[in-house]
Amino acid sequence: MNSESSSSIQQFAATQFEGYRFYTETIEVTHMSALAFFEAGGNDYTGKRMFWKNREKTFTLVGIGHAHVLSTNETTGRFDKIKKDWKNLSRQIVNEEQSVHPVLFGGFSFDPLNTKPSEWRRFPQAYFAVPTFQLVLKGEQAFISIHLITKAQESFKEFDVLRKKRDKLIHAAQVLEVDQYDKPVVTERIELRKQEYMDSIERITTIINAKEVEKVVIARTVKLGFEEKFSPTSALYQVSNEQPESFLFGLEAQEQFFFGATPERLVKVENDRALSTCLAGSTPRGKTIEKDTELGEALLQDPKNRAEHQYVVSMISEVFKATCSQLIVPKVPKLMKIRDIQHLYTPVEGNLNVSSTLFDLVELLHPTPALGGEPKLEALALIREYEAMNRGYYAAPIGWIDTEGNGEFAVAIRSALLDDEKAYLYAGGGIVADSTPESEYDETWVKFRPMLRALGGQLSDES
Ligand SMILES: C=C(O[C@H]1C=CC=C(C(=O)O)[C@@H]1O)C(=O)O
Ligand SMILES: [Mg+2]
């Protein structure tokens, strides 16, 4: 397990927030559509919004505006920096609310050592923000918080301005109609560097068969062009309709918007309980129930997919052994069936040791062999060398943490980067000894399918 810690950052963080005050005020509202609130925030805060809905649909979070940004472009120490900064910033809270806690939302890039030029121009190696306006939907309840982080003395005046803006936002969201979003008109669909992708799988299987590594995940990109600029709210709306059984996330960085609907939890911490998900090994859904069951059963028995899966279970179990007690790791995987695809799935849980935190788990787990490979560092080096792309935030941790240390991170797969009138879609798969370029290529199409449908980029013969 590697750690990206660096001592100079630790010293800096200890004093960084002296003199700052972190004010927070929460009201409960009777009802609020998360998407309408997100859209209403676009009037004054385009480029500074975030969206999250958990897989169980019991918790939704929308952030509008930046009360404070924590980010870094350093290639080492980024997990540690964000962890320490958040701890220090949390300490500056003047008036902690009981109903909901302030949240830090954001993500990390997949691999800061990948220096290939890419479309990810607005996303630093770590990018988090405390939103100025935070909407939390929990069960039937809706809470809206204002956060102000400032050194200014006369901050009550500033806070009053924010209360007025909050009320304007609530009004705008309440009068919006949110079911009016159309799909974009797609003008082109390009498979970027397809031949390089096929060649890289060939190359990686040779390396695996020479016993240099055991598993490496290789991904590729499909680019869509639209007739006109497509809005982040529409993108969220479309993707949530296509993939209801997943985590839904969205993160704006100026004019770029990273979003997706991923079935994969990296880690959740709630009151010292830690949960993770081993998700690797895939097959399509069947058109009939008989075919579907047959495919699922075959997946459960398939040595290639079971091998892909087992690397993930072993690695996550090792991380949990080092950070938790009373582990629960089922001995055999189950099937996770979602709209277009079935996966092998093993949930892992344990009681988090007092010395470990959510950010520690994120750092230790990223990337699991479901997105990196085994061994981790060797696989990362091979991805850097042979994969014909720079993943940016694809396959990386994205999520939130509150001032109590509770929170959840998903693995940002089944995702796309929206960049004005273009979108970049990403999908990959676990390469093991008996992988073939053709079958891995086919598997990526199954993984692209929900996002392609959401964005209108599927071919006419695809459903
Ligand atoms: C790399 C991706 O999926 C991972 C997660 C589940 C199953 C996977 C597989 O069977 O290859 C991948 O490890 C992706 O969706 O882009
Ligand atoms: Mg696979």
From TrEMBL:
GO terms for MF: isochorismate synthase activity
- One GO BP annotation here? salicylic acid biosynthetic process
Keyword set includes Isomerase = yes
Name the enzyme's class: isomerase
Question: Could you list the residue ranges forming a coiled coil in this record?
Answer: none
InterPro entries, per the entry: ADC_synthase, Anth_synth_I-like, Chorismate_C, IsoChor_synthase
Enzyme Commission designation = 5.4.4.2
* Every Chorismate-utilising enzyme C-terminal domain range: 194-447
**What is the designated name of this protein?**
isochorismate synthase
Query: From which lineage does this chain's organism come?
Result: Bacteria, Bacillati, Bacillota, Bacilli, Bacillales
